Known about the structure:
CATH class of the largest domain: Alpha Beta
Helix content: 25-40%
Structural class: alpha+beta
CATH superfamily of the largest domain: Bira Bifunctional Protein, Domain 2
Largest sheet: 8 strands, mixed
Shape: elongated
Number of helices: 15
Amino acid sequence: MSDNQKNLNEIKKFRLEKLKFLKDNNIDPFPHNFDKNNNIIEIKNDSKKYENHDISIAGRIISIRKMGKSSFLNVKDMSGKIQVYTNNQNLSNDEYDLVVRKLDIGDIVGIKGSVFYTKTQELSIKANKVELLSKNLHPLPNMKEKDGELFFSFDDKEQRYRKRYLDLIINDDSRDVFISRFNIINSIRNYLNINSFIEVETPVLQPVYGGANAKPFTTYHNSLDQNLFLRIADELYLKRLIVGGFEKVYEISKNFRNEGMDKNHNPEFTMLEFYSAYSDVYDMMELTEGMIKNLVKEMKLEVNGIDFKKNFDVFSFFDVLDKYSNIKISEMNTKEIHSVMKNNNIPLDKTYGYAKSLDKAFSFFVEPKLINPTFIINYPIELSPLAKVERNSNGKIVERFELFMNKMEIANSFSELNNPIDQKERFLAQQKLKDSGDEEAQVLDNDFIEALEVGMPPTGGVGIGIDRLVMILTNKKSIKDVILFPAMKNEHSNT
Length: 495
């Protein structure tokens, strides 16, 4: 057993003894509720209003200074922290000796009292009631306070992801990121609502997965006696709603893709998808740019290195690929692209066909150059089996955009394919790729084809990765920093 574990066990033992003492003295260390009337930030922002008035706060103790018959507690709630002064004169019925002397850092307490300023002019609460609401048995990571600033030893990134509850207690920045995430999603939702979109819900468990090129997670439904798949995208179900007469729909949902993990990918992630009948990809570009600019302005966000005030850039796929590679990749076949990749020491699976090879080349040559918001349009048809052919092209280009910021793809959009015959042919082409070993190729969805045969109006659709968008808007470098509970490998692989 390590020294750290021995110390931890000793602390737990000592705190369990305190717990027993409290119970033996008829003090409930885990009461049912507390009458909390004030947030700490309210008191700090308008102290004159609360001075010499009864207040009631609750929060976690993050530091304690015991001085004989007096103690100073620093108490923190979700809004902030404040100093609490207690002594044996202001508390009733031996409350100081029975409760305050048994308090530890990490305990959750309810405080009733009045606001005052100490001799050093620090805003504080003089407690006339201290109630233990939850006894801490597992000590917090080491916390120290100096000149009003909190310092801590809990800086192991992996442990912060695994034990997010500790990260949120100690690290205000983490808490603020998730409050920003909430506000970003709310801004997006409000923008779409104002623009007459209706929020809907579609199945997470699906008999046929589709709407993206990805490998699904598979499960089994006992009553139905069949395999089901966790959705990889909402697209095909949302389009069914367009067929059914809903003209503007959106969903903010969890999607699941059984793929690799890195700083930009988590197997469970949040997507926004919205579809608008009688629209095309260019209408969706305008709507998407307006929505993102609106939320940046509304939330007064400052994003490192990105200018959201000017119009988003727009480049064609092959134009920008040829430009940044300094090669005419647009004129190459699969074998020639493989040769280019090999000459640039870019890892590439030999089984990759034309579409995947192009995608890899774009990721290598172009994506690292796209910092400011940039729409890439006019994709090759091989990369976009669900998009309409570009109306002025020779049939090899489709009406699609991807939006990039800070070297990452953030959004994907099509002038949606609504010709059932064309759609089925593209699904069958995808099936051939799947049969040849491409696990991420799309599968034939006959029910969706039948829905298209009923008739779907011209439609524009967009998918936006919420996690990546939050990463950029909160200046975070890893997707794990913006997902409360990211996927993590078991610490003990044999469990």
